[in-house]
């Protein structure tokens, strides 16, 4: 009889011989009560597709974590008070000035707290990268159609995170109470005052009286460090749960269908790559915080309501909102003793309307297409030219408005007339997006035609051959079956049609306005002018037999 002892784990599975270690005993105890082993087996080996564009979403997550870590450190030293004190810190140029306690503590963090300036700058850079990565991530999802069923809810989560990220950035940007942030708050207060009837009441409630009041910093502070981050953290968790459940979309390729996933397992490959990428993002942000000065409040000075800083610019993600207001004509309506400032109110209302259009687009496209199926294969942007054109047009509008938001800097740095820049932006708001849509649409159609020719005739080699009868042709190299599949795997939906307006009995059918609108939009998005017919198997075989046209 041997001395070998056979053991059984918590789930009745054979265990390793010998006396179990302490960690194994704890694992067996937890598994017997929580089922962790079974959960890990079913979830930790989930397959995730891989593509370089998925990194945008990971940068969002990692920069958000870095924001929480650095923000927690900063809360230990920041005092959200607008009470006036006489500065007596280590920065000599400010000595003897009356400043708010919020501004003084910000300067103290930068000058006296060990590592405070580095953490401040990492926090600020992480905020800028966070919003930029969210925008890039959403554009990737938009251009590839990754928002389609069953991911519409996750699109709304991401859209809400983008909106909250902008608001959180505004509240955090305003806390130091320096001249730059104070000018930004003044800008926001002016926009609030333009709201008819209730604008004044909202302003008085928010600022605790006449601007700037004494409560705005104290009110922004809990919103910035508790309310908005708490909501965003919940949305991030929900977003990740849905990503884990649905997995990323995958691009068309051999073996990839709507019902399978080709990629790497979550554990250990995906998690190892994600961990390494986290430290890479953290390292890059640390380098940026160490070598690139951002928001030097000690040079800008404390806020005074009677002054404004030269070249005052908000963080980049709010530049388009300022551009809207800067280039808007100063229209006013005076009636019954009241003034409606359209020059501020219209741009102020366009800001949420533009974001709303982005949020509801997936539902509009699903309605136009009439498609209720699940989609796990991502589109190539060229195969959806209308959607791609709309996305590029939106980015073009954003760029034009960014120019308007910095019209003073463009004028001073390049010696241009600020009036010329203003009129360029006013006209460009309508002309540039339209031109961007047209050019993008043409490029997408051209790429579709090139793909069709490549499928039928192969890849150009640059080798010229002379035929016996004297004709010169270029030799083409046939594509592999994998490449042929990738270029022809996309769907080409037929546009929705109303059908005959008169039935077989000669009775006119009632067609609602929504059906007519849907038919028009469907023709624009999926009609013959929006997609080049894919090469068919018959056409391909005919070319190979030499029966069709050749090159």
Automatic annotation (TrEMBL):
Any one Gene Ontology molecular-function term assigned to this protein's record: quinol-cytochrome-c reductase activity
Co-factor(s): heme
Transmembrane segments: 54-78, 124-143, 155-175, 187-208, 220-245, 266-294, 344-364, 384-403, 423-444
Region (Disordered): 1-23
EC number(s) on file: 7.1.1.8
Pfam families: Cytochrom_B_N_2
Keyword annotations of the record: Cell membrane, Electron transport, Heme, Iron, Membrane, Metal-binding, Respiratory chain, Translocase, Transmembrane, Transmembrane helix, Transport
Protein localization: Cell membrane
Protein name: Cytochrome bc1 complex cytochrome b subunit
Organism of derivation: Streptomyces kanamyceticus
Lineage start: Bacteria, Bacillati, Actinomycetota, Actinomycetes, Kitasatosporales
């Amino acid at each position: 009889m041997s001395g070998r002892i056979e053991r059984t784990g918590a789930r009745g599975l054979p265990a390793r011989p010998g006396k179990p270690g302490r960690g194994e005993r704890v694992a067996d105890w937890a598994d017997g009560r929580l089922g962790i082993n079974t959960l890990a087996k079913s979830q930790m080996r989930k397959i995730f597709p891989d593509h370089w564009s998925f990194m945008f979403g990971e940068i969002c997550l990692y920069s958000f974590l870095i924001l929480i870590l650095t923000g927690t450190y900063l809360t230990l030293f920041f005092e959200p008070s607008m009470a006036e004190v006489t500065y007596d810190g280590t920065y000599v140029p400010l000595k003897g000035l009356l400043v708010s306690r919020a501004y003084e503590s910000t300067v103290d963090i930068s000058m006296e707290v060990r590592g405070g300036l580095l953490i401040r700058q990492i926090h600020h850079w992480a905020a800028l990268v966070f919003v930029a990565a969210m925008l890039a991530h959403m554009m990737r999802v938009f251009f590839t159609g990754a928002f389609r069923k069953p991911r519409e809810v996750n699109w709304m989560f991401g859209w809400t995170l983008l909106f909250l990220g902008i608001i959180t950035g505004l509240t955090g940007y305003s806390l130091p109470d320096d001249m730059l942030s104070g000018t930004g708050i003044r800008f926001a207060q002016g926009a609030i005052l333009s709201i008819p009837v209730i604008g004044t009441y909202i302003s008085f409630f928010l600022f605790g009286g006449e601007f700037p009041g004494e409560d705005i910093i104290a009110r922004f502070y809990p919103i910035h460090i508790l309310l908005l981050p708490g909501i965003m953290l919940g949305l991030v968790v929900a977003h990740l749960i849905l990503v884990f459940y649905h997995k990323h979309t995958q691009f068309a390729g051999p073996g990839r269908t709507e019902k399978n996933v080709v990629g790497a397992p979550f554990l250990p490959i995906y998690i190892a790559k994600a961990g390494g990428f986290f430290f890479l993002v953290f390292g890059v942000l640390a380098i940026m915080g160490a070598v690139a000065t951002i928001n030097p409040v000690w040079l800008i000075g404390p806020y005074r309501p009677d002054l404004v800083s030269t070249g005052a610019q908000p963080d980049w993600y709010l530049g388009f909102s300022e551009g809207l207001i800067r280039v808007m004509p100063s229209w006013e309506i005076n009636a019954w003793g009241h003034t409606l400032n359209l020059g501020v109110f219209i741009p102020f209302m366009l800001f949420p309307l533009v974001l709303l259009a982005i949020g509801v687009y997936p539902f509009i496209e699903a309605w136009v297409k009439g498609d209720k199926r699940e989609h796990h294969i991502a589109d190539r942007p060229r195969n959806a030219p209308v959607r791609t054109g709309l996305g590029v047009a939106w980015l073009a509008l954003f760029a034009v408005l960014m120019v308007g938001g910095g019209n003073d800097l463009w004028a001073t740095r390049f010696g241009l007339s600020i009036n010329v820049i203003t009129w360029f932006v006013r006209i460009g708001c309508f002309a540039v997006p339209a031109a961007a849509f047209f050019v993008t649409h043409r490029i997408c159609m051209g790429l579709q035609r090139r793909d069709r020719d490549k499928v039928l005739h192969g890849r150009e080699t640059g080798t010229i051959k002379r035929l016996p009868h004297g004709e010169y042709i270029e030799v083409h190299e046939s594509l592999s079956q994998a490449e042929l599949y990738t270029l022809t795997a996309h769907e080409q939906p037929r546009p929705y049609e109303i059908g005959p307006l008169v039935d077989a009995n000669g009775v006119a059918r009632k067609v609602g306005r929504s059906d007519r609108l849907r038919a028009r939009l469907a023709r624009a998005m999926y009609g013959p002018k929006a997609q080049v017919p894919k090469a068919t198997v018959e056409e391909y075989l005919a070319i190979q037999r030499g029966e069709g046209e050749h090159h």
